[in-house]
Amino acid sequence: MPKILITVGTRPNFIKAAPLLRALGEYPHIQTRLVHTGQHDNEAMSTVFFQQLTLPRPAYALSTAGSTTAKLTGNIILALCDVLPLEKPDLVLVIGDVTATLASALVAAQHHIPIAHVEAGLRSGDRTMPEEINRILTDQLASYLFVTEQTGLENLQREGISGAGVHFVGNVLIDTLMQHRRLATQRDPLAGRGIQSNQYTLLTMHRPVNVDTPEALHRLLNLIKTIGAQLPVVLPLHPRTAHSLDCHGMMA
């Protein structure tokens, strides 16, 4: 029986893995094992997503916290170096462009296990972004590259990647949207907050370049002030942003 090991680590991974796991569940001759690398592992960033997306309990829930991207990458690699020899999968499937994506691909490559990359070929052109490095290196390691848009094919071709391993497929984010759209529209997270439907601006901000320094936070707060003069601003506060605001005395 062929075995696929799917690694996830962050919110985007969880959202994209849900339709893949449902689809693979229709093939009982394929054994699927889910590994949670622990990049996001608290209630708000992990548990609630597993519950709402009805994701199966991971076969492995790793503890790999790191204070920097480099340390997190190393911790994930070390943990997976114990998992892969035990599981001996026929394929390691990685998703997106987060730290867990590249770390999983590196370990799979070192163990001579084929890699499938979902959302291959996406590029920002900005190599100062950790995600951009993760995308480029993962695509170089992958045997099977699942591309969601035409520009992804063009990017891979420019980098010398083409052939039978490249597949132009649908976007799993849309699959998740369609699966949960009805339930999402029934929720009213703004109830009792004095905000009218369609009369607000939704803002999310958590990338390091946007929130890790006082200068970046000042820009963020000025942006909120400018927009807020026209419409109320709803800001679901990412833990990274909250921590940075608190550390720089700007939470109030």
Give an overview in words.
By secondary structure, the protein is of the alpha/beta class. The chain is 47% helix and 14% strand. The protein is built from ten helices and nine strands. It has helices at residues 11-24, 43-52, 69-87, 99-110, 130-141, 150-158, 172-186, 208-211, 214-228, 239-247; strands spanning 3-8, 31-36, 60-61, 91-95, 115-120, 144-147, 166-168, 201-202, 233-234. It has a seven-stranded parallel beta sheet with strand order 3-2-1-4-5-6-7, sandwiched between helices. It has a two-stranded parallel sheet with strand order 8-9. Helix 1 crosses helix 7, helix 3 packs across helix 4 (99-110) and helix 4 (99-110) runs parallel beside helix 5.
